[in-house]
Write a structure and sequence with these properties.
alpha/beta; Udp-n-acetylmuramoylalanyl-d-glutamate--2,6- Diaminopimelate Ligase, Chain: A, domain 1; 2 domains; six-stranded mixed β-sheet; five-stranded mixed β-sheet; 10 helices; 37% helix; binds zinc ion
């Protein structure tokens, strides 16, 4: 068990949210219990995740996608009212970390994806945010497009969308979880064989073909399960908490 204040001050030191220009507030978004003992982590603070957290008896919900995004309707009505109401009447803290959790060098989404897929990190891709969040590196052994596709399918449990722009084996690549398809041009500037992210847009297909870089869309949710899971486990160990990661299926 830990006090909420102590847990949050530890998270500030660990994730350094003030270094990022983010689209949402990072840290405590909704205040609930002052003691933290039972924590549920998950990708997105949807109503399904909140209800699963309440079934677990959580006093704290830790997520990657929280609330209060820049430009959203600030009124507490509809979906937002129903989500906030469940958290507030049950005295559950909502703690959310967005870009700081993508970027963290060991617990972050991109670092965790590297470990999971066996990607060796050489550095960050310049231009992918300030500070940069996308990583570049290489595969220990070059893989053909079908081999790498198979590797993604087996590791992430879903069929990736693949845009093949050349037939060379994949040795060097860049990657960034989530809706990071726009970074493909920065990856191509480095002359990498491939770029991997979560979501794909219509124009990503043309960019990949014309830039001559293979592109893999492995799923926004599928690529972003691992940072918040690692952070939840890290906090559970550090503060002796009961913790469970709950995966609410999302095909995107
Ligand atoms: Zn995301």
């Amino acid at each position: 068990m830990v006090t909420r204040t102590e847990c949050l001050s530890y998270l500030e030191t660990l994730l350094e949210p003030n270094r990022f220009h983010d689209y949402c507030p990072n840290g405590l978004q909704i205040a609930g219990s002052e003691q933290i003992e039972n924590m549920v982590s998950g990708v997105t603070a949807s109503l399904d995740l909140i209800e699963a957290a309440l079934d677990f008896g959580a006093d704290t919900l830790l997520v990657h996608h929280g609330y209060f995004w820049r430009g959203e309707d600030p009124r507490v009505i509809g979906i937002k009212q129903r989500r906030l109401k469940q958290l507030l009447i049950n005295n559950v803290n909502l703690i959310a970390y967005h870009l700081p959790l993508d970027a963290h060098p060991t617990l972050g989404n991109n670092a965790q994806l590297s470990q999971l897929l066996g990607l060796e990190v050489d550095g960050r891709i310049v231009g992918t945010g300030d500070p940069a969040i996308a990583l570049c590196g290489c595969l220990a052994e070059p893989k053909s497009v079908p081999e790498f596709t198979d590797h993604l399918r087996q590791t992430l449990g879903r069929e990736p969308q693949v845009i093949q722009a050349h037939n060379r084996p994949i040795t060097t690549l860049g990657w960034c979880t989530g809706a990071a398809q726009g970074y493909i041009e920065h990856a191509a500037e480095l002359g990498l064989d491939a770029f991997l992210s979560g979501e794909i847009s219509e124009q990503t297909v043309h960019l990949a073909r014309e830039l001559g870089i293979n592109y893999f869309a492995a799923g926004h949710h599928a690529t972003e399960r691992y940072g918040v899971l690692a952070l939840g486990e890290h906090l559970a160990q550090r503060f002796d908490l009961n913790h469970q990661f709950i995966d609410i299926d999302n095909p995107v």
